[in-house]
Amino acid sequence: MSSSLAPLVLKPLEGVEAAKRAAAYASVDNHVLPEHKVVGIGSGSTVPYVVERIVQQGPKVNAARWFVPTGFQSKELIVQAGLNLGDVDSFPVIDVTIDGADEVDPSLNCIKGGGACQLREKVLAEAAKTFIVVADYRKESPQLGQKWTQGVPIEVAQFAYASVMRKLEALGGKPVLRMGGGAKAGPCVTDNSGFVIDCPFPASSFSSPSDLLAKIKLMTGVVEVGLFCDVAKAAYFGNADGTITSRTAAGEVKEGISFDVQRNPVVA
Ligand SMILES: O=C[C@H](O)[C@H](O)[C@H](O)COP(=O)(O)O
């Protein structure tokens, strides 16, 4: 362990938040290595713990790195942490991207886009030599659509939303245009000025997530679909008992991994 790192002072967390933090820390320890100079930072409520652990690796290793965000939220995380902000224009090849997910199946297919960031997230996932998913135990699922029941998030060009919704209905979906919520009248608008349609499908549609993805992606007006198929190399799930489950795309599963979040990261 690097002796130059100050002892960690972590605020106590419980339940789901503790699970998110443990999964995020484990993913950074295993995949953000000193030789990695370009790191993609995903979106959502788990990713702040990813950035926290990266900062704990120390200013020396991070001074030589660039961090590429998947949207406004992660850009702010990078800037607030004092890390070097990069862009995928400048770094089209990323060493490792770490991101959250709304649901993950045993093959590591994911539903993403609960925070409407799926377009930039997918660009950074595909640009990465290694794409890693971090989540809490609620997201691990035998088949997509069982845990994240509000539907597949689909970003569309604004003027095409009604036409895409009709096509999604014809595909067996029950599309709903996502609204901005209490803070905004009208639809949710993404970082790319698109609208988002949330579309639940019958369970049979998720027997092949990549087929479903291909069908939706071909609809004119669709910008990106929150189905990530065959992209993730590994996933880390924080469990309610404080342990971690890891899964790899190759099918390796490790359950009950103990992880001490109070321990400093190992930095060469
Ligand atoms: O658009 C948002 C993203 O796909 C998030 O990564 C996803 O919603 C998971 O977020 P959280 O870590 O808050 O569950």
Automatic annotation (TrEMBL):
Single GO molecular function: ribose-5-phosphate isomerase activity
One Pfam entry name: Rib_5-P_isom_A
Domain of life from the UniProt record: Eukaryota
UniProt GO cellular component terms: cytoplasm
Gene Ontology BP terms: D-ribose metabolic process; pentose-phosphate shunt, non-oxidative branch
Catalyzed reactions per annotation: aldehydo-D-ribose 5-phosphate = D-ribulose 5-phosphate
Pathways per UniProt: Carbohydrate degradation; pentose phosphate pathway; D-ribose 5-phosphate from D-ribulose 5-phosphate (non-oxidative stage): step 1/1
Gene3D superfamilies recorded: 3.30.70.260, 3.40.50.1360
EC number: 5.3.1.6
Main EC class the enzyme belongs to: isomerase
NCBIfam families membership: PRK00702.1 (NF001924), rpiA (TIGR00021)
Protein family per UniProt: Belongs to the ribose 5-phosphate isomerase family.
Name of the protein in its database record: Ribose-5-phosphate isomerase
Source taxonomy: Eukaryota, Fungi, Dikarya, Basidiomycota, Ustilaginomycotina
